[in-house]
Amino acid sequence: MTPVIDIRDLHVRFGEVEAVAGIDLAADSGRATALLGRNGAGKSTTMKVLAGVVPPTSGTVLVAGTDVAADPLAVKRTVGYCPDVGGLVPRATPWEHLQLTARLRRMPEWETRGRDLLERFGLGDVAHRVVGGFSHGMSRRLSVVLAALHEPAVLLLDEPFDGVDPIGVEATLEVVADARARGACILLSTHLRDLALEACASAIVLRGGSSVAEMDAVELTSETYRALLD
């Protein structure tokens, strides 16, 4: 079966800096895959390429059969993307963010799901408060809500647990489990090994812009992980 996410020899350069140096990666439907590594390992850049935000310098990147370099807009329609930072409008409220997302996604019926997600993530009471005053953790939670709203076939979560309280962690784990149950392909990038392995069945470890290991989550012990990062 063809993987939903299929990356072959991906390179991404920003001037003289090679952020991604030949990554190969595959992820299937109905499965959550963790993308692990230290800061600067190439995780976020890889996620941006998969989301159609950053073009690959070279290599082949297919998302649900679509070549990211050839048709990034089609890829953006397919995925739900939680970026590692940013993505929110400071003067808009969570509800206005949901309205905009629903309009861009052409979702005629979204309000019930939107309210449910906000409540699950502990954001129901601040649904009409501008996000400029939100903590980092609250902004992270809202980013996951926006990525999951339209129940995408491919869910990309970049550092969804960063600064998030236990309520947000549990809600994010539920979103991943729900997406997996409906057959979506989930790629979750983080440096928090324990939470990644709780959410995902398999793991890919990056170091210095390259993939250094791919294994079942249960095999990635703390000792093994530290050895791969050194």
From TrEMBL:
Which controlled-vocabulary keywords does the entry list?
ATP-binding, Nucleotide-binding, Transport
Q: Which InterPro entries match?
A: AAA+_ATPase (IPR003593), ABC_transporter-like_ATP-bd (IPR003439), ABC_transporter-like_CS (IPR017871), P-loop_NTPase (IPR027417)
Species name for this entry? Nocardioides currus
Question: What is the name of the protein in this document?
Answer: ABC transporter ATP-binding protein
Q: Which family is annotated?
A: Belongs to the ABC transporter superfamily.
Any Pfam family from its record, for instance, is ABC_tran
- Please tell me whether the keyword Nucleotide-binding is annotated for this protein: yes
Q: Any idea where the ABC transporter domain is? A: 5-229
Q: Which PROSITE patterns match?
A: ABC_TRANSPORTER_1, ABC_TRANSPORTER_2
Q: Name one GO molecular function term.
A: ATP hydrolysis activity
Question: Highest lineage ranks of the organism?
Answer: Bacteria, Bacillati, Actinomycetota, Actinomycetes, Propionibacteriales
Entry keyword Electron transport: no
